[in-house]
Amino acid sequence: MSDFCLVRQPVFSSTGSLIGYEVRYNDADDGQHGFAQSFLSGTFDLVRNRLPAFVPASREQLIEDAFLAAEPGSAIVLLPADTAADVVLVEAIARYRAAGGLLALDQIGADTSPAESLLSHASWVRVDARAGNADTLAAICARLTNGTAGTAAGALKLIAANVEEIEHYEATLSSGFHAFQGTFFSRPEPLPAADMPQSTVAAMRLMGLARDGNISDRQLEDVIATDPVLTFQLLRLVNSAALGGRGVASIGQALRLIGRNAFLRWLAVAVAAARKSKTGVDQELVRQAVERGRLLEQLVGGGRDSGTLFLVGLFSLLDAVFRMPLNEILDRVVLSTEANDALLERSGPYANALEFAESYELGLFENATMIAKDMGVDQAKINDFYTNAIIWTAEALGAALEAQQPGMKRAS
């Protein structure tokens, strides 16, 4: 069990590529820094997934050389705007940068901040996209970048944080920001002619049949067998991920070996993975949807069904994944009344599980912990649930990609 909590939030480039994650922590009860604990346990490297991690830090952590053990370039330290420069801090920054570390200034706004005296040491600056209108953001950008090119840190790059609306994104993009993060990238953006591939629609209908207790395994197998492509993909998916290559040869055998709930989960993963991703934002949305499904699935207990929990988590982001209103997506699949209530009305026995996931993903650890307590979930296991969801999703989506591209082999 972990005595700290962490969450990662994606950072995207101006072209939509995933360039890294911000990794947020709550402070452990024993006073040790969450970063140190996650680094020693290997969780930090797992969560950042070989990409740079922007890590909020304090003056004290830098002075204590808390980040020197990290692989060079793996942790980009975010110093708050009210951090004033002094000899001891500058020396600590010099040690960190000499070891290959990168520094970022955080929470910079319209007014000049004490931390800006450290601009010559910084590679990144993060600005709140809500700091003002387009003119204000452009002025902040000009103030920060004026004269910084050619410093020891190289050309300064700007991150727009808290990008929540299209206006925030357009204003920061036009002002010259290089990277972006915020809830705007996980919200649905309906397209005029958005629709799902017919195979995806068929798979979603099968999910409804799989949940119907009146449909036997044999009947379900017969229905799936009418779609050879889906049959092939599901068998590859179940073989490569669910059973460790035990040689499942038929849908019926898969149902008998892993059970209908687990089979339903793999069918749902296949649906999410079927989204043709054009950008890193699209790929991350699929990953987040499956991760949320797996995270919620582990909150079983108190009368909550694990299969329903998984589907509530997954479907809660499918409007953003497929760029369609959620009610239109749910019209194509038969979920339980409780699942529909949670997704559309935020009511019923599964609504608090969804609220837990959303709070945790935003780094609202105290609120998430309170919800977990009300649900009867062991709070000491929350971080383990989250990291397990990341591990499981990476394996599941890797298997799903293999199933869609038979000639492809995953890198070892």
UniProtKB/TrEMBL annotation:
HDOD domain segment(s): 196-381
Membrane spanning stretches: none
Superkingdom as given in the UniProt entry: Bacteria
InterPro entries on file: dGMP_Pdiesterase_EAL/HD-GYP (IPR014408), EAL_sf (IPR035919), HDOD (IPR013976), RNase_Y/CdgJ (IPR052340)
Pfam families: HDOD (PF08668)
Official protein name in the record: HDOD domain-containing protein
Protein species of origin: Gemmatimonas aurantiaca (strain DSM 14586 / JCM 11422 / NBRC 100505 / T-27)
